[in-house]
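Ticket #414: bound-state structure for zinc ion.
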Amino acid sequence: MLGRARPSCGSRETEQRQPQQSNCNKQSYPTPSGCPTCGMILTKCAVCATELGLTLGKKCGRCSTRYCGAACQVQHWKEGGHDKLCKAIKRAGGAEQYNANKKYAEAVAVAATACAEDTKGQTCYICTQAVHWKTKEGLVRMCACRGTAGFAHVSCLAEQAKILYAEAEENNLGDKAMNERFSRWHACSLCEQDYHGVVRCALGWACWKTYVGRQEANWARRLSMTALGNGLAIAKHHEDALSVQDAELSMLRRLGAREESILVTQGNLAGTYASLGRYEHASRMQREVYSGQLKLQGEHRDTFIAANNYAGSLIGLQRYAEAKLLMRKMLPVARRVLGESHDTTLRMQYIYSVALRKDPAATLEDVCEAVATLEVVAPIARRVLGAEHPLAGELETTKQESRTALANALASSK
Ligand SMILES: [Zn+2]
Ligand SMILES: [Zn+2]
Ligand SMILES: [Zn+2]
Ligand SMILES: [Zn+2]
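RESOLUTION: The complex was predicted; output attached.
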């Protein structure tokens, strides 16, 4: 199954795509976390959180929970409650599966709480109930649906995605159908926009929990790792995202994944570095990802996404002139290839106007251009992505800030 399709799984700045095989990329970046030799995400001692490689530590013989050594294992058994949990973990399918199930339940609760106000008095469009019959979870909605459309239970969304994808596998549908169906793990089937915030994170855990038990080279399992990493990053759990994306990158290299897939994962990882404020490191990685995608895929969505990510970390480093130059070069191409209202094009314009306004060397014309751009782009984002979407919110805030900056600049020029 290694050569199977590669759907979009979403990245922090954006959406991203995935697997296929080819030679590994030889670059090596520091690997602060994540198991370097397996696709596991539980890489720490369950008691003291010491980082464990594949060969380090000790596994519980029954449930595979991992420890740095006998002392922690004994303590976990005697005082940490493992004597009571061990069998349950084994029954659930081992430590990794048990963790995924637990994290999933927690993430669903967080998502339902966050959506409680918005979903009051509504019902699930899949099961038609307000409260889920089995899990008792509440409703969510963090996409571009409006009015009474799009309310659902995370469990119902996950069940739907799982069934749709299983059907595609059974009937051996082509790559395109596989891609489309897998996208149910991160995009709404009604408005077709990606979920954001904590709902995306809950779906990421749902996806990982569904496929974690498969062989690591399995296509769906590999993608579920991307879905989880992106979900964690989008919900701002950056340290956790780092650990998952790092493990994913090592796994792809080891499996000899296609360079495009490796670049996408590197891009996602670099985005997480940027979110953690490590802009130097992030921008070096982003630059390589961008030039790699440009060479491999040319005028492709992944290339535009990489350009956005690179420009974003340049702004983080206050290298505004370079960020502007890159965006000026790519914007007309993205408009032509993706269209004016594609979220990647919208984000490109957002980054461009931020670079215009933030540059200390900005002229009055630059600030005017930023305001003019945002006046056009902000309403498009609200319409396409929904007013609740983070990018729509960021555009609105930046628009207000730019207007203020323009008013100040005009006042002081008099
Ligand atoms: Zn330990
Ligand atoms: Zn155990
Ligand atoms: Zn439901
Ligand atoms: Zn929707």
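RESOLUTION NOTES: The chain has three domains: 33-93, 95-236, 318-414.
TICKET STATUS: resolved
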